[in-house]
Specification:
globular; about 90 residues; Glutaredoxin; 4-stranded mixed beta sheet
Length: about 90
């Protein structure tokens, strides 16, 4: 089973879209809300060299944001990357 993490904020529509896509696919993921933790948000963005949220990590590899996640889904590559993560 793949480990999936999503760094998110409460006000980001792309974060909601990423979560909705993962929920629709019944992916078990860890949601890390950085809305009020600006230091954590800064560290995560620096660590993963990503400037916006969401930051989606699958098995410790940066997938990117919602656009990259949706592109993987459109090209039928997301399931392969997820290794058919078990349902919630």
């Amino acid at each position: 089973m793949s480990k999936v993490e999503v760094y998110t904020t409460t006000y980001c529509p792309y974060c909601r879209a990423a979560e909705a896509l993962l929920d629709k696919k019944k992916v078990d993921y860890k949601k890390i809300d950085v809305t009020h933790d600006h230091e954590l948000k800064r560290r995560v963005m620096e660590q993963f060299s990503w400037r916006t949220v969401p930051i989606i990590i699958i098995d410790d590899k940066v997938i990117g944001g919602y656009d990259q996640l949706a592109a993987l889904e459109r090209t039928s590559k997301l399931d392969k990357i997820l290794n058919h993560v078990t349902e919630k």
